[in-house]
Description:
Shape: globular
Oligomer: single chain
Largest sheet: none
Order of helices and strands: HHHHH
Amino acid sequence: MTQENPNLQIPADRQNEYFxxxxxLLKAPNGEEPEILQANxxxxxxxFIRTALxxxxxxxxxxxxxxxxxxxxxxxxxxxxxxxxxxLSEGSKKGN
Length: 96
């Protein structure tokens, strides 16, 4: 697994693709998010997760708590899928 440098600038066209995907997720009917993510799997990487968290931070500062919570949830779940977020339940099972 390669780690992207968080200090490197994301190309503008890629950033726009991330924003478009975030917009699709926000506008999607409840429950359709996994299908949207699957259809756009080529965009799911650490930079997408960082972008979603940045947008969530902006939403929180602008008073859009629901949008912020949703994007944080999506980012957390994707981080788990990419192995970037520890699954504490798995660790406790291994210790038994």
